Amino acid sequence: MPLAATGALVAEATAARTAVAAFNVITLEHIEAVVAGAEAANAPVILQVSENAVRYRYGRLLPLARAAADTAEASSVPVALHLDHVQSDELLRQAADAGFSSVMYDAARLPYDENLAATRAAADWGHANGLWVEAELGEVGGKDGSAPLDAHAPGARTDPGEARAYVTDSGVDALAVAIGSSHAMTTRTATLDHDLLKQLSEGLDVPLVLHGSSGVGDDELSQAVRGGIAKVNVGTALNIAMTAAIREFLAAHPDAVDSRKYLSVGREAMARTVTELVEVMRR
Fold first, then answer.
1. Where are the domains of the chain?
2. Does the annotation list 173 as a binding residue?
3. Where do the annotations place Zn(2+) 1 binding (predicted)?
4. Nearest to 212 by CA among 68, 108, 66
5. pLDDT tens-digit series, residues 150-172
């Protein structure tokens, strides 16, 4: 089916008091696994390409974007493309022509006033070019190998009052909130601040996004969705599933050299993870 629009999928999830899952992809195997897992769950899904993934692919966006778009269009469920954690204005300006309907513009590293100014400019440009724009306030730690922020560190959590002003002044369509999760976690031990989420959900009129969801357990994740999270970002969980499956296969088949053998095992493991996480979000 034709590419879906991220904004429409998130709006549908918000109206249904559920969340749409958004998975970060790095290889064609990731893309195929996410779509297969979503089809098994009969659920819409968002394929996310991060700026880091583009950097890994020699700085070229189109090869992965075209693979994602082609796979999405062959899917039996709605699939949207999202450009994630973009800091480069040059990359931002490639999004619409590459098939993306949305972008997460990441200025969270900047002081508030600079964050706001940069995000406002990105949102203005994005809207003029048909993009749905997500931003982040507070800081979900663990990005680019940095250590997770202490839960009580200044700026580690999204302030509800500041968030209201930020959303109004920036004009963004969705806000990623810092409520206790962290990027790149390999254990599902994060404890979310559900009281803060309640305040944010009640005080903001845009959909809320949870980053770093690989480190959030099933019960915490389903509670967050019930509490107002409408888009759930997952990345590391796929890599954990893929790597574990490939390691197990190669340990059992030490003479294997055909990469299709072990990559297919990794792809199947990622697809199962996608289905399982999508089902958690439906609870």
1. 6-281
2. no
3. 85, 183, 211
4. 108
5. 444 545 789 999 999 999 999 99
Residues 4, 212: Cα–Cα separation, whole Å: 24
Is the pTM of the predicted complex or chain greater than 0.85?
yes
Q: How far is CA 268 from CA 183, 187, 249, 252, in A?
A: 23, 21, 12, 17
Distances (CA, A) of 55 to 133, 158, 219: 21, 28, 34
d(CA 264, CA 249): 10
pLDDT tens digits along 167-198: 999 999 999 999 987 766 766 667 799 999 99
Q: Could you give the residue numbers annotated as active site?
A: 84
249: three-class secondary structure by DSSP: helix
- Tell me whether residue 82 is annotated as binding: no
- What span, in angstroms and rounded, lies between the C-alpha atoms of 27 and 141? 24
**Cα separation of 9 and 22, whole Å?**
10
Q: Which of 127, 12, 109, 117 is nearest to 51 (CA)?
A: 109
Tokens of 38: 């979503």
Give CA–CA dist 114/109, Å, rounded: 9
89 is annotated as contributing to ligand binding: no
User: Does the annotation list 127 as a binding residue?
Assistant: no
* 136 assigned to a ligand binding site: yes
Check: CB of residue 30 under 8 Å from CB of residue 23: yes
- Dihedral sign computed on CA atoms, order 57, 63, 65, 70: negative
- What is the homologous superfamily of the domain 6-281 according to CATH? Aldolase class I (3.20.20.70)
Give the CA diameter of the chain.
59
Residues 60-80: tens digit of each pLDDT: 999 999 999 999 999 999 999
Euclidean distance between CA atoms 199 and 207, whole angstroms: 13
